[in-house]
Amino acid sequence: MVTIFMLSDDILLFFSHLHCLGCTPKYHIVYLVIPPPMSTQTKYVYVFSSSKTEGEASMKNLLGGKGANLAEMCRLGIVVPPGFTITTEACTEYTQKGKKHVLNLIKAEVQQSVALIESEMGKKFGDNADPLLLSVRSGARASMPGMMDTILNLGINDEAVEGLARKTGNERFAWDSYRRFVQMYGDVVMGLKPVSKEDHDPFEVIIDMLKAEKRVKLDTDLEADDLRELVQRFKALIRARLGRDFPTDPWEQLWGSVMAVFESWNNDRARVYRELNEIPESWGTAVNVQAMVFGNLGNSSATGVAFTRDAGTGEDLFNGEFLVNAQGEDVVAGIRTPQQITLEGSHRWAQLACISEEERRSQYPSLEEIMPEVYQQLVHAETTLENHYKDMQDVEFTIQEGKLWMLQTRNGKRTGAAMVRIAMEMLRQGMIDEKTALMRVGPDRLDELLHPIFDTEALKDARVLARGLPASPGAATGQIVFFADEAEEWAKKGHSVILVRLETSPEDLRGMSVAKGILTARGGMTSHAAVVARGMGKCCVSGAGAIHVDYKNHTMTIEGQTWHEGDWISLNGSTGEVYEGQITTMEAALSGDFGELMQLADKYRRMEVRANADTPEEAAIARKFGATGIGLCRTEHMFFEGERIIAVREMILADDETGRRKALAKLLPMQRGDFEGLFREMNGLPVTIRLLDPPLHEFVPQDEDNQQAMAREMKVSLGKIKMRVEELHEFNPMMGHRGCRLGITYPEITEMQTRAIIEAALNMKVKGMDVRAEIMVPLVGTVREFNAQAEVISRTAESVFAERGERIQFLIGTMIETPRAALIADSVGKQAEFFSFGTNDLTQLTLGFSRDDAGKFLPHYLKKGIYERDPFQSIDQQGVGLLVQMAVQKGRAVRKDIELGICGEHGGDPASVEFFHRTGLDYVSCSPFRVPIARLAATQAAIRELK
Ligand code: ADP
Ligand code: MG
Ligand code: MG
């Protein structure tokens, strides 16, 4: 029996009564000390300040990127307004258990931390005479620019605003701060939303009304009394629309804001961004609460954003923008034209914007010129940060009455071109090693460097309509639309669109992602449009001031000339030029840093990268991009060109083998010529040629007009053609008479193709070329199928060798693209010299999804998370991938040196490439333009394996 007494909150006293038969009971006294609650409870709040900092950069998962880096900056001795971070774990608690629960968890810690800020800043939160104001900022693990809502100037109310005015001697500033707070809080926390399209932003509508009443143009023209008036009107609107009063108690404001940040993790635009960037929902966001510093306290105050290197080109040049007498969001919102931080940048900007040196110096001077000391401090901070993080930093700062405060640092988003250049330059500068440089470049982002640029010839005649800032490089041509939802609609219908806006906001994200390019009339290099476009690798021209956008009439006007929705324009995101009409584009080249990076990549790469190419021209591009062979040549593509289709149709129409052979004989020299071209281009490298694969109905016209034309051309009756087309009709052609089934029923096709390949190989050998032909049998499901085709191939090759009196080495292999072939890969492997996984068909047949019909349901599947990624884009590793792994093992078990590759679309998808590397394939094969992407992805897979 045990008796327990409670001595105090944390000490329990146990009496255990041990009864032994026949003896006196003994009392054992046991003290059990319960540790204080703090150490067993989870810590939800981490402070950062000059005197005490609990977090650090490595704690991004817990503190979010912003919070972890704020803490790290404090540790580096960089001046940061003091504050604290509420962890992402608290956000998860909020999502799961709600407001009350999380408030209980964090309340005491938050109160203690606010006290720390108070002592550092020498002001009290809620002190009406000299109020401490706070900002509340969200910050997830991965940076989500503009996604989550920030609240500035929190802690202000009708009394505190007077105190602030007296204390700073700046009444306008105090009321401007109050006005901003009511606006942000009303929107973000209280949820005041537009009621109609005209009411796009209810607070801005009120501001516009007051400006009209006062006959002033700019927000900055409004005086203290006007701002006071705005605050009253804002509050009245909130009361009228929401039936609630604006909260006056600073603590109520604080809790409201913290919860709103948690809540905003689930708002629409955050969801869209997560979707686009594959950020899991479970991560949650942290909340940063921080003392306010004021960039709007007059002309010795400012706020800005800077990059340690050029985010567009990658040039190692410190650059950025700032606004004098402004508060944070003003720069990003693109409302005023910002000034350049460095003198160099300012000169370049003026040149692009066609602004004279005179005007530049008087109206848009650089920070370097007007605040040289602060500028030096900023350069010092910027250098310290880049050297510390060893990556390009994107920093936010505010200058309050001549004192510099850093507000944020993170690895800056950049274009594909900048990724490459920064990685290679940092490598040369000795900041990072080769492997780090290679890991710095997202393989998919190389796409931007491979994509077309404007044809220089076509550009000569192009008319420049306007100039803006080169916000995100590339060339884009498309039809004008003015609204994001319209961009989506038009794009869905297959149009190329350019989204033209005054400025963009996070609501426009989906529209931006489907547009070919983005053009804004306002905003700088760090405006929302610019930052997001660079992140997407999308062409963007921002701040083209000559453009007047009329949303109501869906038009834009430049110097009196009007363009309508649907008109064509072209953008050059590298120069900032806007052109009239459609301009043709041309291929990019693989040179400079890009070329060097790719060479370096080959040093660490194990897998080979081949290309899917059907013509000598494609083969040449593939080789230029570094392909080490052709992994798939689809011979049927050669059947469509010019005269050939006539011979192909003759073969299809033939009544018997003799007729077919006659037609095939006409095709032979043409096919041989094609193969000669391929072997010449790929001299010394393997060329894998697949025998005829598609169902024959693909070669005959399905509509009557074309059937009539075919009848005339071939001098047969329309009736005969109709009958044959009818005969060729299949209910499910994908699983019908195709692949090796064609070669089995018409061996003469296989004979002709083999003859063309072998003769071409011998012809090229005579010319001194090193030919490495691989003949591939498609869609095999049984060993006998393969054997039957292999027999035809060998026999034909032997007779060509006998005719020519010369031999050549070549391989006979098969595609593994039916699940059955994968299952019996050991018996197939005994016969076939190589396997090439045809993951397109293998995916279709394994999942039972027809790729051509999957569009009807796959989007829903992806949305519901039934499949995480489109299995036709990124290989289904658990299912289809398992078949691949199994076939690899079985194949190697029976033939040690069996050559293993993959030639489906997946060969150009970085995640799939990584999987194939791990599976132990010898090569992947993808479209010529994806070759560099696959090369880098294969390298990264190898480097990851080393770690
Ligand atoms: P985002 O994640 O969208 O960049 P931030 O939390 O960085 O949002 O806030 C947006 C802007 O608000 C910042 O760039 C900064 O200029 C301003 N800001 C945030 N906190 C403060 C602060 N404590 N003092 C002054 N300005 C701030
Ligand atoms: Mg920021
Ligand atoms: Mg196939």
TrEMBL record:
Mg(2+) binds at residues 817, 841. Residues 61-429 form the Pyruvate phosphate dikinase AMP/ATP-binding domain. Substrate binds at residues 634, 690, 817, 838-841. GO terms for molecular function: ATP binding; kinase activity; metal ion binding; pyruvate, phosphate dikinase activity. Residues 496-576 form the PEP-utilising enzyme mobile domain. It catalyses: pyruvate + phosphate + ATP = phosphoenolpyruvate + AMP + diphosphate + H(+). Residues 591-941 form the PEP-utilising enzyme C-terminal domain. Its EC number is 2.7.9.1. Its cofactor is Mg(2+). Transmembrane segments: none annotated. It holds the Pfam family PPDK_N. The active site is at 528 (tele-phosphohistidine intermediate), 903 (proton donor). InterPro entries: ATP_grasp_subdomain_1, PEP-util_enz_mobile_dom, PEP_util_AS, PEP_util_C, PEP_util_CS, Phosphohistidine_dom_sf, PPDK_AMP/ATP-bd, Pyruvate_phosphate_dikinase. Keywords: ATP-binding, Kinase, Magnesium, Metal-binding, Nucleotide-binding, Pyruvate, Transferase. Belongs to the PEP-utilizing enzyme family. NCBIfam families: pyru_phos_dikin. Catalyzes the reversible phosphorylation of pyruvate and phosphate. This is Pyruvate, phosphate dikinase. It comes from Haliscomenobacter hydrossis (strain ATCC 27775 / DSM 1100 / LMG 10767 / O).
